[in-house]
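User: Predict FAD-dependent oxidoreductase domain-containing protein 2's structure from this.
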Amino acid sequence: ALCVMSSAAFTYHDYCIIGAGPSGLQAAYFLQQAGRDYTVFERSHAPGSFFALYPRHRKLISINKRYTGKSNSEFNLRHDWNSLLSHDRRLLFKHYSHDFFPDADTMVHYLEDFAALLKLQVQYNTAIIHVTLEKDEQAWNGHYFLLTDQDGQNYKCSSLLVATGTWVPNVVNFPGSEYVEGYETVSVNPEDFAGQTVLILGRGNSAFETAENILGVTNFIHMVSRSRVRLSWATHYVGDLRAINNGLLDTYQLKSLDGLLEGDLEDLAIVKDKKGKLHITLRFYLEDRNTSAGIDSITLPQDELDNFATRAPYDRVIRCLGWKFDFSIYNRSLKIMPGKGYKKKYPQINPNYESRSTQGLFVLGTASHSVDFRKSAGGFIHGFRYTTRAVHRLLENRHHGVPWPSTVYPITQLTNSIIKRVNEASGLYQMFSVLADIILLRENATAFEYLEEYPVGVLAELEMQTGRKAPSGLFVIIMEYGRNFSGDDKDVFYYNRAVGEAQHAWQSNFLHPVIYYYKRLPTEREMKLRPPDWPLPRPDAIHHIVEDFLTDWTAPNAHILPLRRFLENCLSTDLRNFFAESCFLFTFTHQKLPPFCREGYARMQGLLGSEGLRRHAVEAGLLEDYTPTDLLGDRRPANHRESQDQLLRDHVITVRPLQHLVNAKDE
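Assistant:
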């Protein structure tokens, strides 16, 4: 649509998406499936421009596990970290690469196909350089978003989805930082480093990736950062150092010259000598001196401490400090502010991924990682593909009156529904402690409504955000690691690290399902006052399903039975399944039938029994053997009808006269 305001023409769309990376394309897919008016602005000529350059050495660290032994597509997404969500089975990443750690060029090709095959509305070669607000009471959020591109073209939208990622390199300024090469431009040819001594600033995957590339040709490599190394297998955070890049740890600990140091980079200074060698010193040594005055007139740490760790000069210093969000294009009226501390590289957003200061502005993808930074996978494709879907569902309810998708089941299916989801749901598994399944109980607990993968950070707002009601209590199903099992100083390989008994399930360390029960929806205040490191407030009851080595929570005694009894205790009802014979008996011996009998047998619903099923139940001890074999002899009925007729004909029941019973009593 084209509208004219203040003598400037604006192209209007309900939704504007900035960035055609993975999260931008994922959002576009959901909007297109819903038939919404949207467009995607991409500054490059093709989608996924970040992956055209990064990682510099072209190997992704997101796994592409093509085989799991299962055909369940939802389960398989638990181990496919690259595919975006769509209905098109051709757009699974396993069809694009056979490598466990794929090449980044393959990701670029995949994203191009995703946009083309699904016919997503992407406007390429359009760099949005300025975003501001226009107040209007008629707008969805009380204002419109006005966007301007590099050619001066103007766009107007009601809701803005920011999917630009974090692409501005982090730079630390200190005396001599002009001698530092950036990860984004440094050579990737190992031969350029042959016989050189290298210092790397940083300790993330980009730093170790760079070191891994030149490990075999350098004299030695030193790596300095303000924090100690964090191994992903210890922290259970995929953004920490992955095993594929940690060769430098071997050469460090096995005494092969390379090494790691801790220190604040802002305290450093670099001095270049006449031979072009780079010497590391400390900033306070240079406070009263000019770095251009010559190295002979500058005090170096080794002048006072002759075994100073970095006293050997370096040929090259490389900066590998990651990236941050680009705040520069947003007008002050949007009030987009950086986070605090370690989250300062991300914009401040609420747990529903909406800007804290500007309603209608949502941040998607890597830039939204402040919600679960260093906790879950929200900064990576295998995490934000689900959080992007959650944002879409929130927007559908808010602007179009489409409630959060849900399914209503009879209460008899409660245990089965939970077991099914915890065994196959990929969103719960990848976004552990962040996304949860919500079970809303109907009145008198006769039925329940099942909502999938809702952001737990806005649980108190569930009724407003989803359009669903929670009048009679709820269950929250979430995946968690053990409370004290993750950390950069944790030994995750100690003996007896796993729990096997159901009664000790609350001590489970590895990822496992946890069910919270609330008699009413938690309030906003309760959410804010929840215990540290708890994803949710204290519930009325809680149940841990014991961890499983195969992540297969289907064991009848270890997994299903304790869960069913927990649910029964919460609801004060019987959730067992019964054969028709048992239900028939209950109708004569109980005042209240179990739900399974009341909703099934009493309404003439259920499966027709067979001789094979009956024999199996008898052999399992679930039914008494009432088969009148002594009366049938060797002749077997041909079918169910003949069986009934023969029982009526042959199985004569002798009825004793009432008078006989009276006489027997008198005796």
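DSSP finds 20 helices and 23 strands in the chain.
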